[in-house]
Design a protein that fits this description.
The complex is a heterodimer of chains A (455) and B (117). Chain A contains twelve helices and 19 strands. Chain A is α+β, with helices and mostly antiparallel strands and 455 residues long. In chain A, the strands form three sheets. A ten-stranded mixed β-sheet of chain A has the order 11-12-8-7-1-2-3-6-4-19, with helices on both faces. The radius of gyration of chain B is 15 Å and the shape is elongated. In chain B, a hairpin with a 2-residue loop joins strand 2 and strand 3. Chain B has one domain. With 117 residues, chain B is of the alpha+beta class. In chain B, 26% of the residues lie in helices and 29% in strands. The chains are: A alpha+beta (455), B alpha+beta (117). Chains A and B meet through helix 9, strand 14, strand 15, strand 16 and strand 18 of A and strand 2, strand 3, strand 4, strand 5 and helix 3 of B.
């Protein structure tokens, strides 16, 4: 058994720095590269893409990335875990296999695929059997939005990925899988942790939490002494150096920017945290109140002491549904009296919207430069404020009402308060809102499937 | 004496649906008990008046000198439904650091270098 494995984070979200995974693979020794592609509503975008093109529906960026790094991965024996498969895991795997063959790597790469997360076609059956898939936040039953659902996927944990690795997969592609599982799976595979080894599983889960947002653990978005963070232009993404006993070190490659310090790790630990004693994943319940941190050298923070508890009997389900339309319009008002002008413009706009009789679920005005981030906490702006942006958003069920709103912004330039600009981008776009519906499903309802394909 | 929280803590915030979470981290271990004493759920609810429409929950993490706050009904519906610039609650962290808290005379003397910086 290896006594140490290095798992590198390559993407903090779909749209993160394109070169980050390449730098992780080429910038120093790693054993695994983990890539998280799926935000909460990404699956619905992919579902739409697949309905237009049966070969689409996965994270397209993943394929050109594999073209760039696959030869190095094969040469160095680096394995990849990625939830890039979206709603078309097989299509994604086929594209990667094609790339491998074009690179002359046929027979040298095995691709593991994990499916079984997609429950879209089973929803009516589940509902009929009394599995209500109530919204975890609001308590509403799914039947209230049944006809608007666009995708439904259970979050799979680490174990199906472990199965793929055990069968010899070098690249593991999943659909909806937890981002923490992408980091935990390599540890279970290498260290042969047991299904009820709760402390170790919790440790691997928390390691995953620390690196899953990429550079947000290594100096990006770091409030602590932010001016002192070295060379963010070349920020190094975090790497977990894991040991069989469940302890690990967070580090990054030599000669990269950013920093790995206890405050940067603490900031990431608390990110998107709920009850710290109950960090629930398909694999375990991790207790963040047991995490201990200490320095082990420059850009090295050791993490130990982590305890976990048995996993719950449920998996989280992410359902996306169509929830109406929205649009946001902006204009910029300049000194003098910028704040007075922008408020006057908002009153005029709202009077006109009222007279048009448009029905919206919500209209929100923000004055960027005054209250868009801290609201009333920011206090009144100083009288000489050089400019303020008017930002008005509307949302509603009626597309034509939202459409009409977008045509009321530009006229304010010639029919409202003076010294206004910032309309070069044209009318605001109407966006369809795809909302997120979190729910729980009993674990026995979901059967993950694992297959390993040869390139 | 009154001190702005930013002198004692740093923070990171994020979202879970319509709930914003703010993790408040003591800049020094010695500051953690001050945070526990002063930055109560009630005070945070009061601080975010007009922003947070639901309950505020607080969790303690003495192991890393941090408090975690959940501010329910704060993000205009949350996720893609929200019309807010900060639909993900990313700047709730610095909004909390605006809070003024009370430190004792002894604490003011002990940490005079930092608090008057």
């Amino acid at each position: 058994m290896k006594q140490k494995i290095r798992i590198a984070a390559g993407q903090g979200f779909w749209g993160d720095l394109l070169d980050a995974p390449v730098r992780q693979v080429e910038g120093g020794p790693i054993d695994y590269l983990m890539l998280d592609y799926l935000a909460e509503v990404t699956m619905s975008i992919m579902q739409k893409q697949k309905s237009r093109d049966p070969n689409a529906g996965y994270a397209k960026d993943f394929v050109p990335l594999m073209r760039r790094i696959l030869p190095t991965c094969v040469e160095k024996g680096i394995k990849v875990t990625a939830n890039a498969g979206g709603v078309n895991v097989r299509g994604c795997a086929d594209a990667v296999i094609q790339v491998a063959r074009e690179l002359g790597l046929a027979g040298k790469v095995r691709i593991g695929i994990v499916t079984g997360d997609d429950i879209m076609s089973r929803l009516d059956d589940l509902l009929a059997r009394g599995i209500e898939l109530r919204n975890m936040d609001t308590g509403e039953p799914l039947s209230t939005v049944r006809d608007k659902i666009q995708s439904a996927n259970a979050y799979l944990g680490a174990w199906p990925m472990v199965e793929a690795l055990n069968q010899g997969a070098q690249i593991v592609i999943t659909g909806r899988a937890t981002d923490t599982g992408l980091t935990l799976a390599p540890m279970i595979h290498e260290f042969a942790w047991a299904k009820d080894d709760w402390n170790h599983l919790a440790a691997g889960t928390i390691a995953g939490h620390i690196i899953e947002c990429g550079a947000q653990a290594s100096g990006g978005n770091c409030q602590y002494e932010w001016r002192s963070v070295p060379n963010l232009a070349d920020v190094g993404f975090p790497i977990v150096e894991a040991s069989p006993d469940g302890t690990f070190v967070i580090t990054k490659h030599e000669r990269t920017g950013g920093w790995i310090i206890i405050p940067s790790i603490k900031e990431q630990l608390v990110y998107e945290m709920g009850d710290p004693h109950e960090y629930i994943t398909p694999d375990c319940v991790a207790d963040f109140a047991t995490v201990r941190l200490e320095y082990e050298g420059r850009d090295r923070v050791r993490v130990y002491g982590i305890e976990g508890r048995p996993a719950t009997e449920f998996l989280k389900v992410s359902i996306s549904y169509s929830a109406g339309f929205k649009a946001v319009g902006t204009l910029v008002y300049s000194w003098p009296d910028a704040y007075d002008k922008v408020q006057a413009a908002d009153r005029i706009l709202r009077t006109r919207l009222d007279r048009l009789g448009l029905k919206f679920d919500q209209v929100l005005t923000e004055f960027v430069g005054v209250n868009a981030t801290h609201g009333p906490l920011a206090g009144a702006p100083r009288a000489e404020i050089p400019e303020v942006q008017l930002r008005v958003g509307v949302r509603g069920q009626d597309r034509s009402a939202v459409e009409r709103f977008t045509k009321e912004i530009a006229p304010l330039i010639l029919t409202g308060p003076p010294a206004v600009t910032g309309f070069a981008g044209g009318r605001p776009k109407v966006e369809e809102i795809v909302a997120y519906w979190p729910a729980l499903i009993p674990k026995e309802e979901i059967t993950p499937e694992v297959e390993v394909l040869d390139a | 004496m009154k001190v702005q929280l930013r002198k004692l803590a740093h923070a990171r915030s994020g979202d879970k649906g319509d709930t914003a979470n703010v993790g408040l981290i003591a800049l020094r271990d010695e500051f953690y008990p001050i945070l526990v004493r002063e930055v109560t759920a009630e005070r945070v609810k009061e601080h975010f008046k007009g922003i947070c429409r639901g309950d505020v929950e607080r969790f303690e993490l003495p192991n890393i000198g941090a408090l975690n706050f959940l501010l329910h009904e704060s993000l205009g519906g949350g996720g893609t439904l929200s019309l807010m610039t900060d639909a993900q609650g990313k700047t709730f962290s610095t909004a909390l650091l605006r809070m003024e808290i009370e430190v004792t005379d002894q604490e003011a003397t002990d940490y005079t270098d930092l608090l008057h910086e």
